[in-house]
């Protein structure tokens, strides 16, 4: 064996602890603590009784562990005139979120595909107007939409909220799908056209199977945006159709009787559990979807 054959090759091993790495991870750790600490306070408070809360031990869990606040927040807390908890609001939020997400993503997918691969006369003008409309403040559109929904006979109903969320979600989703389809190799589209495939066949058999990353991005944006909405729900849903966010506001801002902070914390966590779960399980797919062309022009 020669001396040359035993000389190590390849890149030099990096040190485990370097000053830049220590600084970066320290800052990330501080950011995690900063954002997770309020969630920790809410969680331990939601399992305390009122006596433990009055003791003032805000940062330590209580020895008297109880699930009563969660049960009351879900089934018995008063949300205005009704004392049925936020479970009806959860059902209303599901009824609003599911159809709004499906319809808006379906329409935006077809619109983005058409703008990217089947340009028509004034298609760029149409796309520009669509984008400009998305920058109009919501408050400017509130009263005109009230008049439109009243004219349609759906004001103070769940279909009114579904319609509003679908319309306001279209500009951004259309932009995402249009840019994603435009970033795909045009050779695929041309080859499908040569093989005789038409508009719908190319979309359903060629482009949609490749669109999982942008679909996940669109679902995350729509579900979290619609689920967390308060303004449209309080205006267009009506008192019997309020989503969870509106009912949570009614619970937290109730001024009668003893203030039950543990019930407020439990109701807040129940309201935010769906967005938290979506980000927890789909966060990495969101990053992949963005990197795969969601913001490419």
Description of the molecule:
The chain is mainly α and 297 residues long. It has two domains: 19-66, no CATH class; 87-249 and 265-294, Orthogonal Bundle (MetI-like fold). It is built from 13 helices and no strands. It has helices at residues 19-46, 50-54, 68-75, 87-117, 123-133, 138-152, 158-183, 186-194, 199-207, 212-227, 231-236, 244-252, 261-294. Helix 4 runs parallel beside helix 7 (158-183), helix 7 packs antiparallel against helix 10 and helix 12 runs antiparallel to helix 13 (261-294). It is flat. The model has no long low-confidence stretch (mean pLDDT 84).
CATH topology of the largest domain: the name is: MetI-like fold
What is the helix content? 55-70%
Gap from first CA to last CA? 57 Å
CATH class of the largest domain: Mainly Alpha
Number of domains: 2
Largest sheet: none
**Structural class by SSE content:** mainly alpha
CATH superfamily descriptor of the largest domain: MetI-like
Hey, roughly how much beta strand do the residues contain? under 5%
| Overall pLDDT level | 84
| Distinct helical segment count | 13
* CATH architectural group of the largest domain: Orthogonal Bundle
SSE string: HHHHHHHHHHHHH
Q: How does the overall form come out from the CA principal axes?
A: flat
**Cα Rg:** 26 Å
DSSP, total strands: 0
Low-pLDDT regions: none
Key traits:
MetI-like fold; 297 residues; 2 domains; flat; mainly alpha; 13 helices
């Amino acid at each position: 064996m020669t001396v040359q054959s035993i000389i190590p090759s390849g890149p030099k091993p990096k040190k485990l602890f370097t000053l830049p790495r220590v600084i970066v991870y320290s800052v990330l750790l501080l950011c995690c603590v900063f954002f997770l600490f309020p969630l920790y306070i809410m969680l331990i408070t939601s399992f305390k009784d009122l006596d433990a809360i009055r003791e003032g031990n805000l940062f330590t869990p209580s020895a008297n562990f109880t699930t009563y606040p969660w049960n009351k927040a879900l089934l018995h807390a008063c949300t205005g005139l009704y004392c049925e908890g936020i479970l009806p609001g959860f059902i209303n939020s599901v009824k609003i979120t599911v159809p709004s997400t499906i319809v808006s993503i379906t329409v935006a997918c077809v619109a983005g595909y058409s703008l990217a691969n089947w340009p028509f006369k004034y298609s760029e003008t149409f796309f520009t107007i669509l984008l400009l409309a998305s920058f109009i403040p919501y408050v400017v559109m509130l009263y005109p939409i009230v008049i439109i929904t009243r004219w349609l006979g759906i004001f103070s109903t769940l279909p009114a909220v579904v319609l509003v969320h679908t319309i306001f979600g279209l500009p951004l989703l259309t932009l995402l799908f249009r840019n994603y389809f435009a970033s795909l190799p045009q050779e695929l589209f041309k080859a499908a056209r040569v093989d005789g495939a038409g508009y719908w066949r190319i979309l359903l058999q060629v482009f949609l199977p490749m669109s999982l990353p942008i679909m996940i991005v669109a679902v995350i944006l729509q579900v979290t945006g619609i689920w967390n909405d308060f303004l449209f729900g309080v205006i267009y849903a009506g008192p019997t159709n309020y989503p969870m966010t509106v009912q949570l506001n009614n619970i937290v801002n109730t001024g009668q009787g003893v203030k039950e902070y543990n019930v407020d914390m439990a109701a807040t966590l129940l309201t935010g559990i769906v967005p938290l779960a979506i980000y927890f399980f789909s966060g990495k797919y969101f990053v992949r979807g963005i990197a795969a062309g969601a913001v490419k022009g």
